[in-house]
Amino acid sequence: MSSITTNIENKVATITLNRPEKFNSFNREMAFLLQDELDACEKNTDVRAIILVGNGKAFCAGQDLKEVTSPELNPGFKKILEEHYNPIIKRIRSIEKPIIAAVNGVAAGAGANIALACDIVVASEAASFIQAFSKIGLIPDSAGTFFLPRLIGFQKASALMMLGDKVSATDAEKLGMVYKVVSSETFMEEVNNIANNLANMPTKAIGLTKRLLNESMSNDLESQLELESKLQIESAQSEDYAEGVDAFVNKRKPNFKGK
């Protein structure tokens, strides 16, 4: 059975981390397969929104420690970071389509930080988040030190990373780590509703918005205003803009094509 599965329906690609017996922890094979699936979704014009979810009780427990403690399996931390996690984070941020992290259970270590790198994080009430690195003498990776302080502030991020506290879904929502918390019974229904909504919106404009948000992490005000102007002009030349204006004027529902 593949450690990554993908299902495409109604312009939404659902990528499932599929090692439930290992709480969907990453080994080398799974890391490369996820990169391949993200690449395929980026290239597939029929895909206009992506869901990343875990199979079973966990979203993702981070790195499979069996791999790094078995001499015959261990690729070494340099390869794990440069070939596994860093490329995954870069793909999540560079794909100009909305990516939803559907956190169905525990998200620990790299698993938590992969979720936080996504555009929208929806958590089941059964979910939890933990920066587990300090528990085994490591430092946060997978862009955790980049995204978490920006989401919840320096002081809270520092404490969670150093102490390794588990954060419940409800507390994660209060802190601003996640968009919303949904009951376990209606979790995937709500995630699919959000994804379907995004898949029928103007994909080009959403992609350009994502690019702007990425650049805002390092731009000064002047540079960001300049980029907004440039990308707004690009948005105004899209078919979706023409459709959106025509639908508004004629008081009808727009039919966006994502172009």
What would you say this structure looks like, in words?
The model has no long low-confidence stretch (mean pLDDT 96). The protein has 259 residues and is of the alpha/beta class. The protein has helices at 28-43, 65-69, 77-94, 110-117, 144-152, 154-163, 169-175, 187-199, 203-216, 221-236, 239-249, and strands spanning 4-9, 12-17, 49-54, 58-60, 99-103, 106-108, 120-124, 128-130, 166-168, 180-182. The protein is 49% helix and 17% strand. α1 packs parallel to α3 (77-94). The longest helix has 18 residues, at 77-94. The protein contains 11 helices and 10 strands. β1 and β2 form a beta hairpin.
SSE inventory with pairings:
Blueprint: E1 4-9, E2 12-17, H1 28-43, E3 49-54, E4 58-60, H2 65-69, H3 77-94, E5 99-103, E6 106-108, H4 110-117, E7 120-124, E8 128-130, H5 144-152, H6 154-163, E9 166-168, H7 169-175, E10 180-182, H8 187-199, H9 203-216, H10 221-236, H11 239-249
Parallel strand pairs: 2-3, 3-5, 4-6, 5-7, 6-8, 7-10
Antiparallel strand pairs: 1-2, 8-9
Helix pairs in contact: 1-3, 5-6, 9-10
